Amino acid sequence: MYRTAASRLKGRAGCRYATSAAALKPASSGGFFSWLTGERSTAPPPLEYPMPGVPTAPVLPDFIEPGKTQITRLPNGITIASEPSTNPASSIGLYVNCGSIYETPITSGATHLLERMAFKSTANRSHLRTVREVEAIGGNVTASASREQMGYTYDALKTYLPQLEKVKAEIAEIKNNPQGLLMEALHSAGYSGALANPLLAPESALGVLNGSILEEVVAENYTAPRIVLAASGVDHEEFLALAEPLLSDMPAVPRPQEPASEYVGGDFRYPSDSPSTHVALAFEVPGGWHSEKDAMTSTVLQMLMGGGGSFSAGGPGKGMYSRLYIRILNQHQEIQSFSAFNNMYNNTGLFGIHATTGSDYVAKAVDLAAIELLEVATPGKVTQLELNRAKEATKSAVLMNLESRMVVSEDIGRQILTYNDRKPVEHFLRAVESITLEDLTSIAHKIVCSPLTMASWGDVVNVPSYKSVSSMFPAK
C-alpha cells in the first residue's frame, strides 16, 4: 500500500494547477483513503477543511486559572487548608511548629528520632497494620524534620521502614557528607541559642532518649495552634468533613514563644584524613522569612552567584552562566566545587559560599570566596543582564517546583506556619520581578557586614585563620 502511494506522490510532484479551484476539486472516488491505496482519484482532499462526518476536537482554553487556597481554623486552633487541582492524585501533609530549636539538653536529638520513628506503632495501630493499610491503597508516607518545623506527608506508592539503627547509620554517614557536616557546624558556631542545637541526634543522646521522653516532647509541642493540615488536589469541604472529627479534640494550648537565637559568628574546624579540604564562609541574613523583601532578594542573589562542581553528573549546561561558574570554576581548575548557599529561617538566615579543593589551594579558594562576596556588595559590580537572568531563573525554579502536588501541599503548610496565611505564587513572582540592582547590593552589604562564620573539614592545616579572613570584611 505504502509503495503504491509513494509512487503516485512521485508522479504528482510536477503537477501544477491553473487555479486554486482545481486544488479544491472533489475526489472522483473514495477520497483520501482511496487515493492513498492507489484507487482512482483526481486530487487529495485539503486538510484545512473538516472531513465530512468526522467530529472536530473541542476548543481548549489557553490558560487554566490555578486553584485558590481555602483555609479553615477549627475552634481549638488547628488550621486546615487545601487547594484543588486537575491532577487525579492528591497529597496531604501534617505540619507542626516543632523542631530542634525547641529541644532542651534532656530532649536533645528528639526531633531526629521522631522523624525516623514516624508511622511506627501507635496506640491504635501496629507498625505492620500501618504498612499494610498504606500499601493497600498505593500510598507513600514520609516524614521530614527541620530546625523549626516537622512534616508528615502522604502521596504515592513507596514505603520505607527505617529503624533505630537507621538513625545510628545516618549519624555515621554525616562523616561522609562534608557539606551536611559543614551546615551543622555553621549553625553550631554561628548561633548562640536554639538554632545552635544539632538537627541530627548526637550519638550520645540515643542511649538517653526513650519512649517516655518522646511522648513528653509530642505532648508538649504537638498542640492544636501549632498544627496545620494541608492538602493539594482535594475538595476543601469534603476534606474538612473528614479531618475535623479526627482533630477537633486536640488540646487548645496557647502557642509558646519561639526560642531565641542570636547570631554571633565563629569558627569550627574538623580535621580528617580526607585528601580534599571543604570550607564554608557564612554570614547572617537579618530578618529571615519575616523580612520578605530581604529574603526574596537573598534568594535571587544565591541564584545569581550560583556555582556548582567541576563535574556535573546530570549533564552540561546547568548554571554555567552564574558568576561563580564563570569567574571561579572556569578559571581555577584546582577547585572541585564552589557554590553559594542560602538557609532561611523565620527570623534569621545564613548566606555564604562552600568550596572544595586540595589542601594546598584552600587559602586561595578562601580568598576567592571573600572577593566574590565583597564584589556583589559593591555598587556597579553586578550588571542588569546578570540580575535579569537570576530573576528569571528564580521564577522558573519556583514554578517548576510547584508543579509537584507534594511541594504544593508542603508550601501551603509551611507558609501558614510562617505567615499565618498562604500567599499566591503571583505574589512571590511580583516580588522577584521588583528587585533592583540597588536592592541586591543593599542586601549583600548587610550580609557581609555581619560577623563571619567559618567551618572547615578535611585537611584543615592550611585553612587561613579566622582572624585573617574576618579582617577582609567590614564587620569587626
TrEMBL record:
<feature type="domain" description="Peptidase M16 N-terminal">
    <location>
        <begin position="80"/>
        <end position="163"/>
    </location>
</feature>
<dbReference type="Pfam" id="PF00675">
    <property type="entry name" value="Peptidase_M16"/>
</dbReference>
<dbReference type="InterPro" id="IPR001431">
    <property type="entry name" value="Pept_M16_Zn_BS"/>
</dbReference>
<dbReference type="GO" id="GO:0005739">
    <property type="term" value="C:mitochondrion"/>
</dbReference>
<dbReference type="GO" id="GO:0006508">
    <property type="term" value="P:proteolysis"/>
</dbReference>
<feature type="domain" description="Peptidase M16 C-terminal">
    <location>
        <begin position="214"/>
        <end position="393"/>
    </location>
</feature>
<dbReference type="Pfam" id="PF05193">
    <property type="entry name" value="Peptidase_M16_C"/>
</dbReference>
<dbReference type="InterPro" id="IPR011249">
    <property type="entry name" value="Metalloenz_LuxS/M16"/>
</dbReference>
<dbReference type="InterPro" id="IPR007863">
    <property type="entry name" value="Peptidase_M16_C"/>
</dbReference>
<dbReference type="InterPro" id="IPR050361">
    <property type="entry name" value="MPP/UQCRC_Complex"/>
</dbReference>
<protein>
    <recommendedName>
        <fullName>Inactive zinc metalloprotease alpha</fullName>
    </recommendedName>
</protein>
<comment type="similarity">
    <text>Belongs to the peptidase M16 family.</text>
</comment>
<dbReference type="GO" id="GO:0046872">
    <property type="term" value="F:metal ion binding"/>
</dbReference>
<dbReference type="InterPro" id="IPR011765">
    <property type="entry name" value="Pept_M16_N"/>
</dbReference>
<dbReference type="GO" id="GO:0004222">
    <property type="term" value="F:metalloendopeptidase activity"/>
</dbReference>
